[in-house]
Design a protein that fits this description.
By secondary structure, the protein is of the alpha/beta class. Helices cover 38% and strands 13% of the residues.
Length: 283
Amino acid sequence: MTRSSKQALLPAGGAGTFAIGGRLHVHRLGLGAMRLPGVRGPERPGAARDLLREAVRLGIDLIDTAQVYGRSEDLIAEALHPYPDGLVIATKGGLRRGGDADGRPERLRADCEGSLRRLRVDTIDLWQLHRIDPNVPLEEQFGAIRELRDEGKIRFVGVSEVTVDELGRARELIDIATVQNRFNVGDQTAADVLRACEADGIGFMPWAPIAMGDLARSSGALAEAAAIHGATPAQIALAWLLHQSPVVLPIPGTGSLRHLRENVDAASIELTADELLALGSPR
């Protein structure tokens, strides 16, 4: 599938595109793949693969996964390999299944090479350090990542769950193309990191963009805006994120084709200044 055919399907709206690392042009609404391994059932054993194919058909060209997301990387390869032109697959490493960081160089290399194998690629478009390990010198962690990049196994590097200070220290050691922090209309604690990214043209990928679905059941300003726009609260929450900055790249996950299509439609919702103010824009 060519990029031009995908652009005709994704709503034009105010979302636009962003160039990761100045080179990888993607639509600003992606797909988070953490939930894919749980999308199954006796009547629909291929549901996760169907969802991935529909996402690409709708014009999504940024899929975010991680080596700790169970079979997520395998499912992406099973559904989409050989990958269509312009599709960017981002993955992450450096996290144990229990949630603890593991930034030992040998672990980072093993995670990266495992992702390469599962995704069936020679180079990962965007490889992100899932968490900085406080028990391993930063120079060793990013030194290992730099080696993987120099070997051609990683194209661009991202970090996740960092402070402004940690982002600055990481950038002293390696070029950082993206940051992935928790950020949504109900949790804006990473607003300072978003502004730092905006200032330097770094992509900001908010995880839990609708708070694991909690915002889909919200009341108040979110529900009021949804009623005005004939949308769902979750769609308004995604539209709010897209309005925060041109570097914001929401990656909502879903196991539902209906919700997938609703997420894509959120890219065309234009919120007013008053609605943004009511929703608590951090600017």
